[in-house]
Specification:
Elements: E1 2-9, E2 14-22, E3 26-36, E4 43-48, E5 53-58, H1 67-81, E6 89-94, E7 105-106, H2 109-116, H3 126-139, E8 145-149, H4 159-162, H5 168-172, H6 182-195, H7 197-200, E9 203-209, E10 213-219, E11 222-226, H8 247-255, H9 261-270, H10 273-278, H11 284-289, H12 293-317, E12 322-326, H13 327-332, H14 334-342, H15 353-358, E13 371-374, H16 379-394
Parallel strand pairs: 1-6, 6-8, 9-12, 12-13
Antiparallel strand pairs: 1-2, 2-3, 3-4, 4-5, 7-8, 9-10, 10-11
Helix pairs in contact: 1-3, 6-16
The chain binds adenosine-5'-diphosphate (ADP).
Adenosine-5'-diphosphate (ADP) binds next to helix 11 and helix 13.
Amino acid sequence: MDHLLVVNAGSSSIKFRIYAVLPGDRLDLDLKGAFDGIGAHPHLFADDDHGRRVEDDAFTAGQVPTVAAALDRLDDWLLERLGGERPVAVGHRVVHGGPDFANPVPVDDAVIAKLEALVPLAPLHQPNNLLPIRIIRDRLPGVPQVACFDTAFHRGHPDVADRFALPEALYREGVRRYGFHGLSYEFIAHRLAEIAPDLAKGRVVACHLGAGASACAMVDGRSVESTMGFTALDGLPMATRTGQLDPGVVLYLVQAKGLGAAAIERLLYRESGLLGLSGVSADMRDLEASREPGAVLAIDYFVHRIVREIGALAAAMQGLDGIVFTAGIGENSAALRARVMERLAWLGLVADPAANARRDTVVSAAGSRVQALVVPTDEEFMIARHTLATLRAMAPAG
Ligand code: ADP
């Protein structure tokens, strides 16, 4: 049986999947797991195809301080799980594809060099995305690897959504509004076509609300505008990232406070967002459980900015037929969804509180002019599909 390996290496976690490739290129999940809490409370766990936990191992931060250290432990373990067999291909999530990559690509040395050059545009993610590609190239030479990009789904944006109002030369050298979370949005578009085909053809704002957060305007399943821009800092506030910020603040930090690039990067990526606003936690569960004024403010701000962005994206599409909640907060926080939906009543959204509390797929009321859905995202499935399709395009089945 052929197997496909999917690796999604983030800033503090590595998610992985093994799929069996069945006749007709149907993908059957064999193993699903993650190494999370890297550098803090490292935890390796995996479930088999029956949902049974087959691995559950905790480590100290000193044992697994970095994503590289986690990969070191993980690659032997994964190869063992594959029973010594080589996977037919390995698919990777790569956050930034820059202006050149509008589709998944087979990885070679030239591709790696191009992706390496994009590290400054995604300093939290890109280096960790490239690490497993290099390790697997060395350990499993000859096994095709495919890079799947978070920016690719947005590359069809109209010109006005792809630009900043900066001189043309900067646009040409790549200073563009790329947009991110594309694999998640692509999966949402794919899933909507199955579960709500009419809505899938309409105007939808999908809200990916996790540790990273963004919203994407989709018309007929295609991204037309997104809240994220040049880097994954723009748009909605996130666990520790600012979201939209007047660039004048950065000038102030440089000119009036003498901050250097490293200090500003730390502030914008790691010390801001829900953590910075609340002074309590970066984690929505902690904020919802807290009565600290900072925690209340952070949630209020999050809701305010989500609603503001949905309004802006609806204007960009000249109307709105539905919204989708996804990712950790979007899928799990009924309270957050309720507050967002309440503030979209003016657009014609009527919530169904009981359905929302139960986390039904449809959480708007029957007859609501704007529908609201909860759709669990599955970036790894999207990567597996792209990887297999790319593999088939490389070597058509005989
Ligand atoms: P990542 O971007 O790292 O994949 P996730 O999509 O897993 O992040 O989202 C993490 C966020 O989801 C955290 O803020 C976490 O608090 C939040 N979350 C998870 N479960 C719940 C829940 N039951 N209620 C509220 N928030 C939740």
